[in-house]
């Protein structure tokens, strides 16, 4: 198993990915997308992976460059007919001086054991020790909102996407 496979299992039923990725080849598309984003985070930020690959988190610092054009083109292809609605979703931008908590996921076989909280705590520690001790994220899961609130995040914005999920934009000052 790879870190991308762990995130694929963790996000299998997640509202945003179910809405934004076509059903045809969903798992393969999701795993490739996770691999692209993880590689970008490894190059420019921090990727946290438990020893047994049961949990993964990725965060990128302020000022991280955009993905290269070739990867953006691959992402567009993977998103297929879902790309236009996804791009039309008007989510508030992250503050310029904020880390982007890009993802955290725990394989369903290991859920409920505190791994997600441990990864969030470690991610917050990384940002806290930086020169820009702020972090922001989006989630489309109410249970995730509660989890992040337990770690000090507050909801800054709630976006209702027409025929799509509700997205909560959250942030924390460390």
Which descriptors apply to this entry?
Aminopeptidase; alpha+beta; 174 residues; 6-stranded mixed sheet; single chain; 7 helices; 6 strands; globular
Task: Outline the structure in words.
The protein has helices at 3-10, 15-20, 26-44, 69-79, 83-88, 115-128, 142-150, and strands at 46-49, 55-60, 99-106, 134-139, 154-160, 166-173. With 174 residues, it is an alpha+beta fold. A 6-stranded mixed beta sheet has the order 1-2-3-4-6-5, sandwiched between helices. Strand 1 (46-49) and strand 2 form a beta hairpin. The mean pLDDT is 96.
Outline of the structure:
The chain is of the alpha+beta class and about 170 residues long. It has seven helices and six strands, in the order αααββααβαβαββ.
SSE map:
Layout: H1 3-10, H2 15-20, H3 26-44, E1 46-49, E2 55-60, H4 69-79, H5 83-88, E3 99-106, H6 115-128, E4 134-139, H7 142-150, E5 154-160, E6 166-173
Parallel strand pairs: 3-4
Antiparallel strand pairs: 1-2, 2-3, 4-6, 5-6
Structural class call reads alpha+beta
Give the overall silhouette: globular
Task: State the end-to-end CA separation.
Answer: 34 Å
How many β-strands, per DSSP?
6
Superfamily (CATH H level) name = Gcn5-related N-acetyltransferase (GNAT)
**Helix share bin:** 40-55%
**CATH hierarchy class name:** Alpha Beta
